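hey so u asked for the seq, here:
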Amino acid sequence: MESKSSRFPFPFQPYHIQESFMEALYTALDQGKVGIFESPTGTGKSLSLICGSLTWLRNYEEQKKLEAAKLQDGPEKKCDAVKEENSTSQTSEPDWVSEFVQKKAERDIVNKLKDEELKRKKREERLEVIRHNAQLRYAMKRKASEEDEALLKSRLKAKNLMYIKQILFVLEGLVRTLGGKVGQNPNAQSCQLGSELLTIFNLKVQKYFEKSMISQKLFGFVEKYEGSGVNIHSGSKNKENRRIEGLGRFLQTLQNKPTDASDQQMAVEDKPIMASPMMLVESFLFALTNANKDGRVMIQRQACLSQSSLKFLLLNAAVHFAQIIQECRAVIIAGGTMQPIADFKEQLLFSAGVTEDRILEFSCGHVIPPENILPIVLCAGPSGQQLEFTFQTRDTPQMMEETGRVLSNLCNIVQGGVVCFFPSYEYEKRILGHWESTGVLQRLESKKKIFQEPKKASQVEQVLSNYSKCIQRCSNAGSGQTGALLFSVVGGKMSEGINFSDDLGRCIVMVGMPYPNIKSPELQEKMAYLDKNMPHVGGKSPGKALIENLCMKAVNQSIGRAIRHRGDYACIVLCDHRYARSGTLQKLPEWIRSSTHTHTTFGPAFASIRRFFLEKRQRPPL
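ran it, structure tokens below
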């Protein structure tokens, strides 16, 4: 059922923020803006994007059809109007002037009609290409095995074989760059001093990749025959054919593979759905066609060749985004967590040639009422210890024990699920180990069943299922435990894309500030590039601003996991006094920042949290 109070074909009565979102989206599309739209997770932004953009497209097409229909009625009416206007305003002009004006008006109208028709045909052609490509991709995936075998047999001749040899030569060069030897098991050989990485990729090979679609075809072939025991060229005696035969196996060795039996069994259970190794190689080689100043090639040599890697780091995304800006009428960039956007605008939009007046920013609140969220900046723990999780202080026994006391007090008053985010896996391991040796974990487990984010992606669903069942069981049984406590890591498997709605996430605890590792080669290159090419704002270098923004983006992603619908409610506890800095608070989403309270001592914070949940338990659900 469509909304009656809105001009947008929404399937149900939209919230006010959804209507505002669609109105702003319509304006951005109509005026050809570059829109930055932030709408919290759970507010229906996907549906708002679809309904708003389709409404504009429908109206735009209808308008163009009306204009075309008027023009197709013949230019005579238009010209008569022009002629009449000219006769009344310029009666003294000679006949040849009026005739010239009339003919020019006719030509202008006809040309406009032709231009509109040409644009319409181009739009239809582009849509047809998109449809065709989608059908082609689907058809390719279902190609018969004879066609795949033809690729590896009859088609690997002459010119095709020449390009395959060049690809093999490139791959062998990449392996040598990492210090490895071609033809040996990468899991069993150690890295030696690698050779120099040379630019040995030419445009003809690139065109061959694109035209032949060899990466996709190889992937389909391997996917079809993997585990079937099929060995297409096992009987071949030809040296070149044997070399081609090993292409698939050679590419597979570029992936990490466990060595012992137990690891192999775990790998089978945790087998990820990943792209073809050749696709990864193809993407890397294409990336090398960027200008030297816009990127860096990162070589990481580990003790074992299979753990080593070659990576292309794009430093200037604006060089590619500029083409999108030029070709598109409007560009909409939308997400649940866009803050902070200062570096985003500077590095991507302004660098791509977008002017300030073309940018339209939209940020809305959440669908929940303000009283359903309680964000708290906690500056000190129960014993008065200041909470500051810097690299110098976070490993001290006093800081880890104070964190345990904070969490223990929260578990005493929060029913349901508590999700605790640590800044890194390393720190999570260290602090949990300390808590286990000091009895903190045992005290926590007396109130909450403890779960921990798994190391393998395949185990996430099972852990979440057990976590959810435990919370439901505790709420129904009325046992000594009041729910569950989930330990997770910022940027990990549960910090994005996982919904901790309702009792699954009544309290989100952020331990410290998850700054990225500034010793990372990739980050150092990015910071150096920004410091050299971007302006300093407020006396702060762009590289330092990047570090702070990466930290707060990660925080915003994690704490936004709790609120998922209008009747939901949750408490967010930011455990570090540095969150109280005005510059840091400004980088929180507006719907969280507007309700945030800073407490320099633990007592008032604890009292407000207890009062918050007491009121929510007494209030009937919506």
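Residues 320 and 352 are 8 Å apart (CA to CA). DSSP finds 22 helices and twelve strands in the chain.
lmk if thats what u needed
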